[in-house]
Amino acid sequence: MNISTLGSTVRPYQSYVYAYPHKTAYRPLVERPALRELWAAEPKDALSLYLHIPFCEVRCGFCNLFTRIGAPEGLVTAYLDALERQAGAVREALGEEARFAAAAFGGGTPTFLEAAELERLCDIAEKGMGADLAAVPLSVEASPATATADRLAVLAGRGTTRLSLGVQSFVDAEARSAVRPQRRADVEAALGRIREAGIPVLNIDLIYGIDGQTEDTWRHSLDAALAWRPEELYLYPLYVRPLTGLGRKEAGEPEAEGDPEWDERRLRLYRAGRDQLLAHGYEQVSMRMFRAPGAPATGGEDHACQTDGMVGLGCGARSYTSALHYSFDYAVDMREIRGIVDDYVSRPAADFARAEHGRWMTGDEARRRHLLQSVLQAEGMAAAEYRARFGTDPAEDFPAELARFAGRGWLDPDAAPGRLRLSPEGLAHSDALGPELFSPAVRAAMAAYDLK
């Protein structure tokens, strides 16, 4: 039986599982547990630190991240003040024994901050939280317009090991179609500045499935990216989500989610991009991530942001303990986001010592999460590691799901004994496979969430 044909009977683009459970499964925590109690029994010798900056110069048409356009005078300073207050409260809750093994600045666009503000952000991570940015991997997200020489000099000087640049397309018409106003000349200039800054790992984000994009223009963007010899490349399928710029357009402009022709076009572009990068010697790490030969691992892997022991600061950041995932309220609508940001900057330090929104993690959810964050990686998962953690076998815990995946040709029959690994077609269908591992309770909570 033709695996490609079999796999394509399932909608391949359902949901990008970048975190499980998603924030739409979180709910207000009536008890508002104290962070000191939540973290008391957690291992704290190798924590991950994430600082969230909720500002962008523009909001791309496909973006449903927690970010607002611009910042009125004084708001960035007020936000950094609140971030500093939160850092003090969280650090006190963690205790002096807390140590950080990785750090990341995300958003939004962290480089929306000016150079002096980036210095202060780094000080909050180092002096406020105790993270040695020069000694641990530090990943920072940027846009071409904000990747200025002075900002990059700050980041390089403070130990940034990885800079991720959201390019999306080197074709100006495609960038406009995705409501990302930029010119290729400006993108190329930003890439030149990043290379001059000497940050060890450059990641370039590209998107396939943009309205008007063809296989030729897609290869053109890939060639343009490869000319910079990036250590990493991420290839993202375009999604049209509610409350985004593209989502507000009428159906068919661009194609609506679930359109079989659009699904097939995205799959075709994905395969073309994957094959082109593999031919250039890149290693496929996941459906989205490709790493150049010899490039160091710097904490930018897909599953890194899901690891237990992550401490998030900022109004859009998540934190993960083994028992509870928590954050502030979530929104996509710009007005709602502004309200949450305004609320965040007005809070006293005491407010940051408790968790307010989140989801308690049962044993079943922990198993699902471990399987998700492992099997969606190209290297797969050793069943022995799963057994060591949970005392059971994944085939015992998820017999129906794994049998279904095998029947579709999504599991690699040639994987080493004891290793659960996706086939190339399984990786191509990661955005269909992942959601099938969601628990009924999480599905119900996400469906009932009032997206705002």
UniProtKB/TrEMBL annotation:
* GO BP terms in the entry: porphyrin-containing compound biosynthetic process
Q: Check the record and name the SUPFAM superfamilies matching this protein.
A: Radical SAM enzymes (SSF102114)
Sorted alphabetically, the Gene Ontology cellular component annotations on this record are: cytoplasm
**Species name:** Streptomyces violaceusniger
The Swiss-Prot or TrEMBL record annotates one GO molecular function as: catalytic activity
Entries under PROSITE patterns matching the protein:
RADICAL_SAM
Span of the signal peptide:
none
Q: Which residues form the Radical SAM core domain?
A: 41-283
Q: What is the protein's name according to its record?
A: Heme chaperone HemW
Note the InterPro entries from the entry.
Answer: Coproporphyrinogen-III_oxidase, Elp3/MiaA/NifB-like_rSAM, rSAM, rSAM_sf
